[in-house]
Amino acid sequence: MKLYHFILIFAIIMITTIVITDLRMNDLNSVIENKEQIDRNIDTAIDDGVTSLAEVDGNNIIINKDAAVNSFFLSLHSAFGVLSDKVGQDKLSLYIPVVVVTMEDGYYVFYSDEYTGSDGHINASKHWSEKFPYCYEDNDFIYGFTLGDVITLYDKNGIFGEYENRKIYSMDYHDLQMKDEYSSFRGERPNSILLNDEEFELIRKGTIINCIENTMAYYTTRHNMIAANYGITYQFSLPVIRKEEWVPYLDDVSMFAIFQGYPYGGETGETYNRFTTAGAKVSKSKMYYLEQSGWYLLYHLETCPELKKEGIILDEEPLYSVEACAAEGAYSCPICCGNTGVAAPDYVPVR
Fold first, then answer.
1. Whole-number Å distance between alpha carbons of 53 and 255
2. Considering Cα of 54, then 93, then 79, then 215, what sign does the dihedral take?
């Protein structure tokens, strides 16, 4: 064999290697592009959903979980090109085992279930669960946490003895730290989490995370039985969720979704796995409290330094807009509200 034969064979091998490598790189680029598009679709859908979740109407925060989940799926159907394809919509929904909506005092799970139709066939559909509370228990109490400072306590041992016929209390937990009627509790339980703001927040947030994660894990695993009936062999399970992914959503009404097992990338056999979140950011924004100051009312933001001063008389229920405060005949606090609303005629802070 002559030299040019070796050169020709070497050239053929090199060209073949380059072409194969280039094809593989093209496949990889296609996979990356596809995943990025799915990321954008999911991000848009969860944002669209949470936009429909909550709104302030006067002094009422209206939470509409049905509107939120409808907007979420409508956005997905549009992005994945199945807006007019019922079969495609049903198939896409099988890759979303759970959607969770959090409320002030609990959360709901939107999950897949099966039912037998009039034709005898088993069909899959989505349903809302009952509301799950953010529940925690120690030796003294069963705690019902919220997304804020209000808490419901079941007094298991009658620690609040002055109210012997009462077992359930709902209050701002700071009341236990300040009010005279709970002085005996402070003396008997100085190490209670209710008397330590840092520990209270740690337990509150940890409880919310644990409750939601445990419930999502249950319904995600349960989804395997339903998906298998439609030929999906992917094993659904709750992905690892880092603590920092939870933190921004533990104080506000929010929406969470699992999108899992969706095949993409063609022959590469990749599957998509994503935990996505979005917060409505309305539950604690712009909360106002009323103070009786002489002959008139003042409204303060919850962060006002004058709010917790001794001698200020507050309405325990917050208001959520300046308009709602004005409807009560209240003037604005010049310290926390600045030029918002109508200023009080002769306001002097209580000292």
1. 8
2. positive
The model's pTM is: 0.73
Strand (E) or helix (H) holding 182: none
DSSP assignment of 159-189 equals -SGGGTT--EEEEETTHHHH-GGGHHHHHH-
Helix (H, G, I), strand (E, B) or coil at 327: helix
Whether 258 shows a pLDDT value over 90: the answer reads yes
Specify whether the CB–CB gap between 195 and 203 falls below 8 A. Answer: no
Least Cα distance to 126 among 221, 235, 212, 226 occurs for 226
CA 236 to chain centroid: 21
User: Predicted confidence band at 63 (pLDDT cuts at 50, 70, 90)?
Assistant: confident
The dihedrals phi and psi of 224, each to the nearest 5 degrees, come to: -60, -40
Q: Does pLDDT of 311 surpass 70?
A: no
Compute the distance between CA of residue 40 and CA of residue 49 in angstroms, rounded to an integer: 14
Pairing of strands 254-264, 270-279: antiparallel
The tokens describing 248, both together, are 């921004």
- For residue 299, with 0-12 CB atoms within 10 Å meaning exposed, 13-18 middle and 19 or more buried, which class applies? buried
What does the DSSP 8-state code read for residue 343? B
User: Distance between CA atoms of 94 and 128, rounded to whole angstroms?
Assistant: 16
The set of residues, in sequence order, having a beta carbon less than 8 Å from that of 36 and lying 6+ positions away, is none
DSSP class of residue 350? Answer: -
Alpha-carbon Rg for the chain in angstroms: 28
Interacting residues of 274 by C-beta distance below 8 A, sequence separation 6+: 38, 39, 42, 239, 258, 259, 260
Distance CA(39)–CA(33), nearest Å, equals: 10
pLDDT digits (tens, 9 = 90+) for 137-181: 999 999 999 999 999 999 998 888 755 567 889 889 999 998 888
